[in-house]
Amino acid sequence: MTSPTWPAPPGAAARVGGAALQVRGLRKSFAGRTVLDGLDLSLAPGEFLALLGANGSGKSTALRCVVGLERPDAGEILVHGRPADTAPPHRRMAMIFQQIHLVHRRTALDNVCAGALGRLPLRRSLTPLLFPRELREEAMVCLDRVGMAGRAAEPAGRLSGGQRQRVAIARALCQRAEIILADEPVSALDPAAAEQVVALLADLAHEQGLAVAAVLHQPDLARRHADRVTGLLHGRATLDTPAAALTAADLATLYAPDHQHHPDADQEHQ
């Protein structure tokens, strides 16, 4: 089985070197309502960053701007020091959503192969029957990495929520993404499945040198698995701390009732 080419394993140099992703002064408004108000954040190769904050704080909108699903009103998004829209193709970003977007009637393997559609000639991207053998082998490696190789031939619609989310992560790996952004990836999962998925995201960062950021609403998961926590309040990063140093006072500030916005302000549609 042919293994995909992973980024270099993380180490001290990776963690202190250049950022994989930098967001500077990001601003975004919807219908006159400010959602992002000069947001700054960074993400290094080999790092797992948890984004915390109340509904309406701008977390999901920030990720959507980074991957190009929303156009920011102002600010700068850099991928390995270059503007995101001019970064070379090998500097790929992948997004994992709260609502797991898989084709339920297709197998787990076919869904993972779909992560590579951008690399295939058009005629081979039209039907799974034309996926080349090399791609299927690579997709199997990705499924094995997330513990789902044994379910490769099963239709995605028959998998549990946690299993589908792991298939979605495998699809991001097959996309050969160097940066993985996850928007509330475990909010619909039971506690055991949520723990497994967040631990997997941390492993991908630490063992394969990927830059991983996840919006979470479970501070305990962030403490156990993330390297760093960035807290958003009113569209700005007001907290940046090692995850293990996150305090109850930090959380009380981020989630204070008088800091809540209307949920629509965060545009958390998928």
Automatic annotation (TrEMBL):
Q: Which UniProt keywords apply?
A: ATP-binding, Cell membrane, Membrane, Nucleotide-binding, Translocase, Transport
Q: Which PROSITE patterns match?
A: ABC_TRANSPORTER_1 (PS00211), ABC_TRANSPORTER_2 (PS50893)
Q: Where is the signal peptide?
A: none
What Gene Ontology terms describe what this protein does at the molecular function level?
ATP binding; ATP hydrolysis activity
Q: Which Gene3D superfamilies match?
A: P-loop containing nucleotide triphosphate hydrolases
Q: Which InterPro entries match?
A: AAA+_ATPase (IPR003593), ABC_transporter-like_ATP-bd (IPR003439), ABC_transporter-like_CS (IPR017871), MetN_ABC_transporter-like (IPR050086), P-loop_NTPase (IPR027417)
User: Residues in domain ABC transporter?
Assistant: 21-259
The answer, when asked if Nucleotide-binding is one of the entry's keywords, is yes
Full protein name:
Phosphonate ABC transporter
Q: Which organism is it from?
A: [Actinomadura] parvosata subsp. kistnae
